Amino acid sequence: MEWLIFRRVVYYGAALTLMTLLSLLQDLWMAQLALIPMLLTVPGLLLLNALRVPGTAVALFPLYVPACSLVVLMGSGLAVNLGGAALGMEHPLRPVPLLIGLQLCCLLMLLAGTTAPLSTAIPRPALPSVRWLTLSMLLPLMAAAGALRLNHGHGEVLAIAALVACGAVLAGTALTANRLDVGRVSVLLFAVSLAMMWAYSLRSDLVYGFDISTEYAVATATIRDGVWEMHPHPDAYGAMLSITVLPAQLHELTGISLVVILKLAYPAAFAMFVVGIYNIAERFLPRRWATLAAGYVLVQGGVSQQLPALARQEIALLLFLALCAALLEIGMPRPPRLTLVVLFGPALVVSHYSTAYFALLMLGGAVCVQILLGVTRRTAAVRWTVAAALLTSVAGAVLWYGPITQSASNMGQLRTALSSDGLQLLPRGQGKGLIAAYLSGGEGGTMPTSEYAEKVRAAYADRSYIRPPGDAGDPRYELRDNGLPEREPRVPLVGPMLNLAVLAFAQLGNLLAVAAAALMVFQRRSPGLTRQVGLLALPALGALVLFRLSGTLATVYNQGRAQIQALTLVSVALFWMLHQIAPRLRRHLPRTSGRRLDLLVWAAVGGAVLTIFVKSSDLSTVALGGTPSAHLADRGEDYERFYEHRAELASAAWLGYQVAGNRDLVYSDRYGQIRLFTQLGAGRPGMITDLAPAALNHEAWIYATRVNVVQGRARSSIDGRMATYAFPTDFIRKNYDLVYTNGESEVYHR
Known about the structure:
By secondary structure, the chain is mostly helical. Helix content is about 65%, strand content about 5%.
């Protein structure tokens, strides 16, 4: 025992000393490269040891390590921020205070863990060889090179090749999973996940996506000010530690720029999400089935396309998955298990409000189902871990979003919508019917330019602060269509058939998942761990259906993101049921061996997963014709919306300097505003995204992006539907002065 204590003190003490030295040498790129993985592992290992979490549990679910590290980093950063402000420091979020705070926290955890029992020692993992690791990491490096080549106009060949390689590696991993150990499968899943996310996140001259532009502005302001203000935060972004204190801490301790942290480090951490799902699935399924379950989540388009543009949700989903895993640790001693859920719940709350809302719905539903089981089957009504997770998460949400940060504005909007319109099922599915509206996922769709112009005219007629120029109603300046030209598919029939197949697979999967979760919960002989998965998966599915059907609830949480969160455990339940199909077929096909039937079912499911990958990755568009997303092309809808060019950022920065400190109206189209968000922030009042002449104030500023100037196209949204129209160049140039131009982006004012 004394030798164990000595070894822990030596190992962890050396790691903390090395972290300090590397932080002092942060100007060296090698120090920066080593610091990020150390910051995401060493604090977590110390916390797990201090909590007496069994080492076998950590070995079976390594995601506990980065999740606990995130808890320590956000907790120590918050303590330094509040403590430094209380001591009169103007800029507590600077390298020295943050390093001292983190080291003090780590030393306290080291002292608390010195007397931990032998069971907390983590078994030495069977890591793949250096050659294996190097070859695996070539895949994300290839994807990164493909994205950077696209950024510099060198074509999409390498980007397409990297994505094809991702599909091949994923398929090969699933095929050979039973012959590989857990470490090799985990490394390959991590490599594929990271490659697919870097293919998106590394596009653009700044950041790529909608929400991340605001997140970048919030994080930039926190780093610049050197302090995080606790309240009020009416837009809720500023209340999330995942995009305020955490990136500021990573930047100050490592010297790595914020752009690199958001584009490289956050996706690298989130790539562990799919590995964590695999680790949970392997408790119930053979290795190749568990690989398919993780692959099914990975090939959902939102994982690689949306989440790299949602930094706060990347952090929150890691914590959510760690919370789910802790709830499933029915064999772990109660004290460390309760401590883990009590830590992960509030950490989730301070990382992302919408993910926290979904978690609360899931936990509340799980408690209700457990009470139902207790009433009908006379079993234990409520597990302590689920109740503790619910109570601490609810308390954390009430306090954090209420008196602490005053950031519950979106809940206020939901309350107003519910009181005036009710739950408002299918508001965006009018005329479609229940099934069609459900299948459309609540998408608002598009509208003709003429309809958009009429709606804008009616909407702005009663706004007294809007005074359009005198000739705004001149027929010469009526908006006209200017949508993207449609490219003819090479094989006209294959594309629709592929879309139909993917839709069928997805909906069949949802139906089977509902049945699987219900079986896990209500089957009399269901093992405790299996029932626990069902208890969490069933309410998660219920919440997902509710988000999908109700446009009112969609104001709180995008249903596509809710699906990714629900799949955390739903995918495990789904593939658990699919794995049960072969034994049941054996009864009807007695001459066929069970192994062969299992292989046939697995091959059919694997084919469905691969089909979804081909569609969601846009490789089908490359093969069949059309315009793929921005990770594979320098054109198209996604590229025009989300790719931020240096010229646009330069004009946005110039405009930000001109309007700083005043409340002048600033106009841009819907996607021009995300360029402005990076420079002005999302909370600035007076930003309007309608460019119809009837909506333009005669003394406003007008910001024109590269798409507006070069392609002559603009996009705006009203009533949840998008209109794409010709940028009103003639009207604007007649009534406003061109006050800034760099050839690709312009600013007008009068």
